[in-house]
């Protein structure tokens, strides 16, 4: 079993990432925070012992990601007209290399641990597919043993019950399903406030960067 994890991400470029946190944070601070998220995600991925790949956008964003993921087996641009197509293409690409199972995760996951990822791989021992739910009805993780085009085709992301719709698509495709552990993602100022509370006193890359941004605990 040659397991793989794909980190599906934007490059941490000012003005191009975490823009929903503006104007609470500047473009430069948003990029720095995202880079800290990615460093924590990279550590969690590496601790699983799985092969790690990075699917990124924009196309010229490889440089900073190569610095954060120096151990990655490969870094490649995302391909496709919409989010579903891009996720499907990334999964298909890595599965075609002979990896199975394959887990794809987002990057706005400063609380992600290797236990989340290993939980997803454990779910795939007895099922064809897994999804890791987020608190807002979406999912931060999708895991497959083989391609499932209908899981990604024609889906709307960012609203409604994205997780429930994905589970229904797997069932309609005849794929057995087992859930992965839940994990909070960080998209909004409210999410960031909750994250600061969760990481109080921690020593992750994100926790240290947040203390730089808010040294007196202000701007909450």
Describe the structure.
The chain is of the alpha/beta class and 220 residues long. It has eight helices and six strands. It has a six-stranded mixed sheet, sandwiched between helices. The protein starts with a strand and ends in a 7-residue tail after the last helix.
Helical residues, percent: 40-55%
Succession of helices and strands = EHEHEHEHEEHHHH
Shape: globular
Task: Let me know the largest β-sheet.
Answer: 6 strands, mixed
Structure summarized in a few sentences:
With 220 residues, the protein is of the alpha/beta class.
List the helices and strands and how they pair.
Elements: E1 4-10, H1 27-47, E2 51-57, H2 62-68, E3 74-77, H3 83-96, E4 102-105, H4 114-125, E5 129-133, E6 139-144, H5 149-152, H6 162-172, H7 189-198, H8 205-213
Parallel strand pairs: 1-2, 1-4, 2-3
Antiparallel strand pairs: 4-6, 5-6
Helix pairs in contact: 1-8
Search tags:
220 residues; alpha/beta; 6-stranded mixed β-sheet
